[in-house]
């Protein structure tokens, strides 16, 4: 089954409001040149409203870097799905390794956030990935199995149509190290088999699985040539229009 490619840029804690709008406007024309793929950027919360307004009608999708599990309440510092929808945000990154390892979010919390997104009509991008210690100990697949099963707890087959997975080996994020195309494909194939076991083959064949971890213009083509890699979650290279444009135009 053919899956529509998806290139997403995670801007993390970078760019002022003016810088974010400028970069968004520079990236937006790429969508017209690449109508056969989805392209998304995820600015910081302070820039979401202005970026959504700046790229409206361009086809460039805007995502949030996190999302709350509830629609409203006494949750200082959190952002809910109605708030995001109100701005024009359509996706949310959930469970990024930095949220897991710096801010202590566990699989249960990540699952709550994922349901908050689904219940609020926001498409979740569920991030998973092993540490270097996990990989060296031969625990990669066991760690991913747990993250996927617990992260998708109580998510049904119909809801999975809205879910995107992003495999980001922690040891490759911001380090300059990238999993080889063979390593990445091996993990993506495992994840697709896992989804088939959890749901059914049609779900596994439909869900898009992105690779993230030092994705650059010079490695995107090899990564996207792999049969189970459907796109990329891009960090540092997404902060420059030229490099992100090249990644989005993978060949």
TrEMBL record:
Protein's GO biological process: gluconeogenesis; glyceraldehyde-3-phosphate biosynthetic process; glycerol catabolic process; glycolytic process
Compartment list: Cytoplasm
Molecular function per GO: triose-phosphate isomerase activity
Superkingdom assignment: Bacteria
SUPFAM superfamilies: Triosephosphate isomerase (TIM)
Residues reported in the UniProt entry to bind substrate: 10-12, 174, 214, 235-236
Enzyme Commission number(s) from the entry: 5.3.1.1
Recorded catalytic activity of this chain's protein: D-glyceraldehyde 3-phosphate = dihydroxyacetone phosphate
Coiled coil start-end: none
One Pfam family named in its UniProt record: TIM
Gene Ontology CC terms, in alphabetical order: cytosol
Pathway field: Carbohydrate biosynthesis; gluconeogenesis; Carbohydrate degradation; glycolysis; D-glyceraldehyde 3-phosphate from glycerone phosphate: step 1/1
Annotated keywords: Cytoplasm, Gluconeogenesis, Glycolysis, Isomerase
InterPro entries linked to this entry: Aldolase_TIM, TIM_sf, TrioseP_Isoase_bac/euk, Triosephosphate_isomerase, Triosephosphate_isomerase_AS
Active site annotation, chain numbering: 96 (electrophile), 168 (proton acceptor)
Main location: cytoplasm
Quaternary state and interactors: Homodimer.
Family: Belongs to the triosephosphate isomerase family.
Role this protein plays: Involved in the gluconeogenesis. Catalyzes stereospecifically the conversion of dihydroxyacetone phosphate (DHAP) to D-glyceraldehyde-3-phosphate (G3P).
Name of the protein in question: Triosephosphate isomerase
Gene name as annotated: tpiA
